[in-house]
Amino acid sequence: MSGLGAQVSGPPQVAGHKGRLDRAAATSVYLIAGLAALFLGLPVAVLVGRSFVDSSLADTIATGVVLDALALSLLTTAVSLVVTVTFGLPLAWVMARRRFRGSGLVEALVDLPIVLPPAVAGLGLLLVFGRRGVIGDALGLGIPFTTIAVILAQVFVSAPFFIRSARTGIQGVDRDLEDAARVDGASERQLFVAVTLPLARAAIAAGLVMAWARALGEFGATIMFAGNVEGRTQTLPLVVYSEFQAGELNGSIAAAAILVLAAFGVLIAVRVFRWGRLADARGLA
């Protein structure tokens, strides 16, 4: 009987020991997750908090150098976004709806600027569009160290975000709906405008926001290809660098805080568009 009792009482002890191990493992996971979140969020929180506590944002945002850089950043990112949509949307449609020899290479080329170091991208642009570059020399262009160079650098690094998102949105459009529109006599242009674009609008809008944010934060390619000329090529990220180099920490913090707040707004917008896309999908279902 005692042996039987030991056998009966054994499993609860094993179960209790396993439960303690599970709780310890869960606690460790939560602790590691909390440390990771703290590591990612604390520097940004301290930066934005200091910009408000020390009044560096309020005192510096109205200075000429920050205002000029902000105006230039808004202008160049707006133009780069128009260029990105003009050339990127047709490419996204081709990648989503057509399979051709070399399509994998095209997809790799589109993704390459995302993983390419920005300084390398800037050097490549300089070798192509510079005075002695492949295109610059042939056409006699003087693009480097101008506002146009800023726009080209922004387009190069930000277009992949829009193209990838737009391609995903177009791929998600039900082909049966497009075929039904063709049966009703819609041309390919009418089909794209009236059917494909509205159904893919959430993904396209999210891509626009992400591309704009990437263009706004561009630094490496810009400083390599366009330089750091105040009032002409000095965008907000370059102000952060220049003010820090000059020992003006408050100016650097203020410009950085503007970029952080803009990035935070972008993340909120992307999630709103994602919710809209889910709502569209549920509506179609």
TL;DR of this structure?
By secondary structure, the protein is an all-alpha fold. It is built from 13 helices and no strands.
Question: If you had to describe this structure to a student in words, what would you say it looks like?
Answer:
The protein has 285 residues and is an all-alpha fold. It has helices at 2-53, 56-60, 64-97, 103-115, 118-129, 134-139, 147-171, 175-183, 188-199, 201-216, 220-225, 236-245, 249-284. Helix 3 (64-97) packs parallel to helix 7, helix 3 (64-97) runs antiparallel to helix 10 and helix 12 runs antiparallel to helix 13. It is globular and about 65 Å long. It starts with a helix and ends with a helix.
Summary tags:
285 residues, mainly alpha, MetI-like fold, 2 domains, 13 helices, 83% helix, globular, disordered N terminus
CATH architecture of the largest domain: Orthogonal Bundle
N-to-C order of helices and strands: HHHHHHHHHHHHH
Strand content: under 5%
CATH class of the largest domain: Mainly Alpha
CATH topology of the largest domain: MetI-like fold
Distance between the termini: 63 Å
Helix content: over 70%
- Helix-and-strand structural type: mainly alpha
Query: What is the CATH superfamily of the largest domain?
Result: MetI-like
Rg over alpha carbons: 26 Å
Number of strands: 0
Strand-helix topology:
Layout: H1 2-53, H2 56-60, H3 64-97, H4 103-115, H5 118-129, H6 134-139, H7 147-171, H8 175-183, H9 188-199, H10 201-216, H11 220-225, H12 236-245, H13 249-284
